[in-house]
């Protein structure tokens, strides 16, 4: 890879350009050179790479399958909305060299926070070392500090530099730079906390660590065993480990670890009851999954399905239409969005629907059912074979649906008639909801030459019988009010509501909506006016127990942060059990009136925002610009709990800002609350710039001194950026 390899970069069947790709000496950046022009420029950074796929695993490479064998093809997938890079090597050996090499290079991001911090500073060192001699003079150090978001007094920086320059050579190298970095990153607030519990100020004995865990971290079970585990895991000194003591360095490593995170590590794995009926869970759901841009002219891609599934989505939308040569296609009907073959979508779902997202999260991850949107409904096994009709009753529990795909859609006649015996010759079709999506539904899947359907007359709608016969579990029905639903609808049916209609029902009949969702599935979809693929807040829909709250996964922002925050628990399986009072068909709960439900009473959440560590620069900021960070804490929940507070901003310090401010919130329904931490760059004259965020359900918060590891706007990790806080929960 460092010698360089000539490969084809491909964008379409006709666009295939030869490029000379080479891994730089820093092992962090890939450069390429055009064979025609000889121009050399940066292709991408290793830190931007999410994964590498072998073979024909993109639409472009699939279209070239007859021309190039899969052994020579691979796809580099980047974080965020950046497009994939499809490459064709000259031989299978060269392709494997790059595939395996890139996979090894992107591995360090999964290591500990301390190692991530080391990797981070190493990268900056290499960028600031202008003459590439492996040493750094004071001028280069000043440049490094600016690059790292540090606006440090020149005299103080010189003093740190001279203290670390043990050889008195006027430059830092090797261990000298490590000393400089340790002095630069010394955490006074952590050292002070350490000394509060350490009798000699140099170490924590086993009993002193137990005291800290019990008194501050509120660990109440097996604290001595936990203390031993933490020493064995995070104490860097072998001598200290043998004596069962924890040094200041080990204490900091623990606080920066998953055990020291604000997110309860026991809730990262599957921890909820998975034996409840399907309607008792919130389900991670996407809208028009195939789109990766806007709703009118956007690009349709199987990448939309792959990204959604890898993000934990369990409900996907597949809009099927007649295509050329009798082959169905998937696209946003009656728009200018591009089309993709239905065959490719099904193939992609077969591969990724039950793929484990992260093996460390536990064996249950992503093996739970996927609910597919569109016009066909069935329950399929993971091998693609349909389950026997009637095999799944309306009260089927989630556990029994494991490794199955449920497709919801329209139905000719009644589901019960199909289960009882042959269907009469009828062609009445169940309607979908009113509005833009309903109009689109009325144009889909008519009986046509291919059997998949072509758009026909609006006056009389018919549906291909072969598709109707697939409907087993989730029959689409029009919603005509809660009373009619209670008297005529069945748990095997599902209604789709626009966000506007859902909001009206929440305002007018909040308690009835909650009760309805205890026994029947409800899907909410974005307004047809959101042509830019923007999102509505899912929180107000979750407040009444709506299970399938469909969002545009391609659009980053607060709404997707809430979605990721809710579903980051329970092994990221895409299912979160609703609170008990939202599973009771006689519940008095109304989110607009918390007093209607006899809960445990208001809970007080007190958050002391202490400090920040190595915050990233704002994207596209001017060279040398340093952020003025502030922290905003938002509560998303029932209307009475909606709130936000923020700290003051710290001028010119994105490296180690100190706030030491306390924020306090009252939560009336903590079971539904999500807490979002946002860091912004303060601007006096315009809107603040986004720096990082982290969102989690209140139920997953660990009290005590905790680190919050920040995420980017796209929801990806940005190590080693973090906040240090103290959390207290009281009644």
Automatic annotation (TrEMBL):
PANTHER family: 1-PHOSPHATIDYLINOSITOL 4,5-BISPHOSPHATE PHOSPHODIESTERASE DELTA-4 (PTHR10336:SF31), PHOSPHOINOSITIDE-SPECIFIC PHOSPHOLIPASE C FAMILY PROTEIN (PTHR10336). Residues 583-712 form the C2 domain. Residues 116-151, 152-187 form the EF-hand domain. Its EC number is 3.1.4.11. The gene is Plcd4. Residues 1-107 form the PH domain. This is Phosphoinositide phospholipase C. It is found in: Cytoplasm; Endoplasmic reticulum; Membrane; Nucleus. It is an enzyme of class 3 (hydrolase). SMART domains: C2 (SM00239), EFh (SM00054), PH (SM00233), PLCXc (SM00148), PLCYc (SM00149). One of its GO terms (biological process) is intracellular signal transduction. It catalyses: a 1,2-diacyl-sn-glycero-3-phospho-(1D-myo-inositol-4,5-bisphosphate) + H2O = 1D-myo-inositol 1,4,5-trisphosphate + a 1,2-diacyl-sn-glycerol + H(+); a 1,2-diacyl-sn-glycero-3-phospho-(1D-myo-inositol) + H2O = 1D-myo-inositol 1-phosphate + a 1,2-diacyl-sn-glycerol + H(+). InterPro entries: C2_dom, C2_domain_sf, EF-hand-dom_pair, EF_Hand_1_Ca_BS, EF_hand_dom, PH-like_dom_sf, PH_domain, PI-PLC_fam. GO terms for cellular component: endoplasmic reticulum; nucleus; plasma membrane. It comes from Ramphastos sulfuratus. Residues 467-583 form the PI-PLC Y-box domain. It is a peripheral membrane protein. Residues 417-455 are annotated as: Disordered. Residues 418-440 have a biased composition (Acidic residues). One of its GO terms (molecular function) is phosphatidylinositol-4,5-bisphosphate phospholipase C activity. Its cofactor is Ca(2+).
